Amino acid sequence: MRGEDFDIQVSFRHRVRFTRNAFAPGNSVLSDVLETRGHSKVLVFVENELRGFFPELEGEVQDYFAELPGLRLSGVEWLQGGEESKRDDAVYQAALAAIERYGIDRHSYVVVIGGGAFLDVIGFAAATGHRGVRLVRFPTTTLSQDDSGVGVKNGINAFGKKNFVGAFAVPYAVINDFRFLHTQPESVRREGLIEAVKVALVRDGEFFNWLEANVEDLRNLEEAVLEEAVERSAIQHARHIAEGGDPFEMGSSRPLDYGHWAAHKLEQLTDFELSHGEAVSVGVALDTLYSAKVGRLKMADAERVLKVIEGLGLPLWHEALDLRDSKGKRRVFRGLEEFREHLGGELTVLLLEAPGVGVDVHEIDEDVWEECVEEVAACSRV
Ligand SMILES: NC(=O)c1ccc[n+]([C@@H]2O[C@H](COP(=O)([O-])OP(=O)(O)OC[C@H]3O[C@@H](n4cnc5c(N)ncnc54)[C@H](O)[C@@H]3O)[C@@H](O)[C@H]2O)c1
Ligand SMILES: [Zn+2]
């Protein structure tokens, strides 16, 4: 045989920072992470929705960069955000066109300020323009600050499939500016916290204990407690990506997708009327109860988890669980097959052994899972 195998290793630095009012005069969190040599350009994208909440933002961004030697603000572009922005490639194309128009090169920066959907679209443009320019994310929702914003995925929907076109790309930096964290509707802010519960359950039992002890303040969205939960969750997500051994999801084990196989299916079955956070709450509740029923987790611990989810005002059950196919089988179970297809190989689902300790299994006993559905249904209907 002629030829050789080459191992190519590339290392990335994932800078995750926390602050408040990053664009206030004198706040150096952003300028400290940007290299200012060589007079780099900065192009800022903000999602339209934020204009109503933060009308002064554009002026602050302009003043901030005016004071920074070595960095030049090319422009501030306001574009459509939310799930709508991922539906086709219009916003993606508009962002690419701006990257081209302003001459953003591989030593310049794209800064994006917005919710998870907007970060996905602009991140995809930044990952593909010039085959990748530096991206600094400012997530502005609970869910994107405590989970997706520190992730390494970008993308838009295509062929009716979510995130069908996209790229793995480690952002240059992620800045969680808590100023943005308190303007979403209360219920939406609470829903985002389920990802903190999830990451605590799969990685950090001590964090779960803390969430449990603070559940009432979290439900009331008490600022300091909410921010601490978001910060700890973001750090755990980033640490998993950096240290978990599979940042670009080549394998089948997906601890950060705990409870998500059912969640994704429930979102789809309800035509996305059920939000991601609510769907994940139901999925986490059921996979936790299941973990106990099959003898992996102590039932008392499962009950603690369900109590925390309920304590946050999040659901354990949803009527879409009762939808059945023509053979009488619950349609949610199709989610297992879709999850397997998504993993591209063997079904791998995480269960819990204790809060903070997960274990991969390759099979779900549907009869036992049914029992769990019946049980949470009974609690939820009372
Ligand atoms: N890339 C990843 O790894 C990853 C992981 C999980 C989820 N996601 C994606 O993230 C998206 C969901 O993100 P999301 O929950 O942040 O929702 P979102 O981005 O759709 O935002 C929800 C709504 O809140 C608005 N909004 C944003 N910031 C606000 C603020 N500070 N105050 C008030 N309103 C604000 C948005 O305009 C939108 O209407 C989905 O598209 C999902 O696919 C990506
Ligand atoms: Zn999720």
Summarize the structure.
The protein contains 17 helices and 10 strands. It is α/β, with parallel strands linked by helices and 382 residues long. The strands form 3 sheets. It has a 6-stranded parallel sheet, sandwiched between helices.
Task: Give me the secondary-structure topology.
Elements: E1 15-19, H1 29-33, E2 40-47, H2 50-53, H3 57-66, E3 71-79, H4 84-87, H5 90-101, E4 109-114, H6 116-128, E5 134-139, H7 142-146, E6 153-158, E7 161-168, E8 173-177, H8 186-192, H9 194-203, H10 205-213, H11 215-219, H12 223-243, H13 260-269, H14 276-293, H15 299-311, H16 334-343, E9 349-354, E10 357-361, H17 366-381
Parallel strand pairs: 1-8, 2-3, 2-4, 4-5, 5-8
Antiparallel strand pairs: 6-7, 9-10
Helix pairs in contact: 5-6, 8-14, 9-10, 9-12, 13-14, 13-16, 14-15, 14-17
Zinc ion (ZN) is lined by residues 195, 260, 276, 280.
Description:
The structure is a single chain. The protein has two domains: 15-182, Rossmann fold (3-Layer(aba) Sandwich); 186-381, Dehydroquinate synthase-like, alpha domain. It starts with 14 loop residues before the first strand and ends with a helix. With 382 residues, it is an alpha/beta fold. Helices cover 45% and strands 17% of the residues. Helix 9 crosses helix 12. The longest helix is centred in the middle third of the chain and has 21 residues, at 223-243. The protein has 17 helices and ten strands. Bound molecules: nicotinamide-adenine-dinucleotide and zinc ion (ZN).
